[in-house]
Design a protein that fits this description.
two-stranded parallel sheet; elongated; mainly alpha; two-stranded antiparallel ribbon
Length: 447
């Protein structure tokens, strides 16, 4: 029965399904089963190509038909596996039995005992899940970050020459440029995407306790370590963990989640800054006909997209944090806690995707309010004090910092006129005075 968005428990499958539906191909129950089938089929083909003498009758002509099992995998196939699981009470064993049924149809009944040969269920789960994570990041999540970057880069260029009052500790500080402040986020996101690209995605493949006991007993002349390394690297596109227990060490997967959490934290920071700029009226927001900002206050146009993003990023990061902390820890050669936790890996990605779409929507509504930006900057001449005292330091003027502190650290307004009058009282050359007079909040912006 198709899930109704109105009866879904999670908003990922309910209210926000349209924003993260792409991820169902990677993290749904159907997707997990399909990835398991894919690993099992590719493993059987790799055994045929070793070659094992018992599989000599399986020609390369069969490989395309075998791959069609997962390439053309349907919901009906997944339901059949779930029906088998209702009897076996074991999800990976159900995949094995499903494939044996397929082998009977393909005329490979004599070879079907080499499905899942020598493996334990975690050899399948700990390759299927990292593979799904890798492909979901490449196909869905990373492109979403790239769309955000593209939007920010446009604003960085568009607003490159707009001077703006900076604030440190919430107080007026040396002026900056609006485009540069957007560029900070471009730089930070790009750095972490580079870290994401460099992160290792690995899996476990080594039998019941990681030692290839069964493989080595059945075929002691085969280098199973080399076989497994090649299988994961060249068939699945992930790295094999060389020493493990029954399950993955999960250290590398935890590292991936840590990078994703840092990326989210940067977007979280961006959301809050944009919220503040809107509050300061540096931006107004495009108004859409028919939308309501408040049920009680008709004038309201709230920055709800940035708030929605911030909330979803918090949920995502809480899950990423738990995954990164829990997965690398297991009792002795394994306990089962990783199994249920692994099923949630799609949830933080879904909340991240919802957040990114909301941030993009919020950015798309922005209308620059240059008047408010200029107003704040022009009313805060005290911020040029740093530049004045630095030039005075250069000139060897006595106690320049203290001199400017006495002028500016006051409840009285510091204006263009009071700064100009102060400059005229300084015992410096006319050339230096002219240099100081050229300073203004709109020109004192650095690079």
């Amino acid at each position: 029965m198709e899930l109704s968005t109105l009866t879904a428990i999670s908003p990922v499958d309910g209210r926000y399904r349209g924003k993260c539906q792409k991820l169902e191909l990677y993290f749904s129950e159907y997707a997990l089963i399909r990835y398991r089938v894919r690993v099992e089929v590719e493993y059987f083909i790799a055994l045929c190509e070793l070659p094992l003498p018992q599989l000599a009758a399986v020609s390369a002509d069969c490989f395309a038909r075998l791959r069609e099992i997962y390439q053309n995998f349907t919901e009906s196939d997944a339901r059949r596996i779930k029906d088998i699981e209702s009897v076996t009470n074991h999800d990976v064993k159900a995949v094995e039995y499903f494939l044996k049924e397929k082998f009977d149809v393909l005329g490979l009944a004599d070879c079907k005992e080499f499905i899942h040969f020598g493996l334990t269920s975690q050899d399948i789960n700990n390759t299927a899940v990292p593979l799904s994570v890798k492909e979901a990041i490449a196909d869905v999540l990373r492109p979403a970050f790239e769309r955000l970057l593209a939007t920010l880069e446009e604003y960085e260029k568009e607003w490159a020459d707009i001077p703006m009052l900076a604030r440190t500790h919430g107080q007026p500080a040396s002026p900056t440029r609006l485009g540069k402040e957007i560029g900070v986020y471009v730089y930070r996101i790009r750095q972490q995407l580079n870290a994401l690209d460099a992160a290792v995605i690995s899996g476990k493949f080594g039998g019941a306790t990681g030692n290839f006991n069964a493989h080595l007993t059945a075929y002691p002349h085969i280098d199973w370590l080399a076989f497994a390394n090649d299988f994961l690297a060249n068939r699945l596109g992930i790295e094999r963990e060389q020493l493990t227990t029954q399950i993955s060490n999960y250290d590398n997967l935890a590292g991936v989640f840590d990078v994703l959490r840092r990326l989210n934290t940067i977007v979280f920071d961006l959301d809050r800054d944009m919220w503040m700029y809107i509050s300061m009226e540096y931006f107004k927001q495009k108004i859409k006909e028919g939308e309501v900002g408040s049920s009680a206050m008709p004038h309201k146009v709230n920055p709800i997209d940035f708030e929605n993003s911030e909330g979803n990023l918090g949920v995502a990061n809480a899950l990423y944090d738990h995954l990164a902390r829990k997965l690398p820890v297991s009792r002795l050669q394994r306990d089962l806690t990783d199994s249920t936790v692994l099923r949630t890996v799609g949830m933080p990605m879904a909340h991240s995707l919802i957040a990114l779409e909301s941030t993009l929507k919020g950015l798309g509504k922005l209308l620059l309010n240059r008047q408010a930006i200029d107003r704040d900057l022009d009313s805060m001449w005290s911020v040029v004090a740093e530049g004045i005292q630095t030039i005075l330091r250069r000139e060897g003027y006595p106690k320049p910092y203290e001199t400017l502190k006495a002028l500016t650290r006051t409840n009285a307004a510091v204006t263009a006129e009071s700064i100009a009058e102060f400059i005229e009282t300084l015992q410096v050359s006319d050339e230096v005075k002219a240099e100081l007079h050229r300073l203004s909040p709109s020109t004192y912006t650095g690079y």
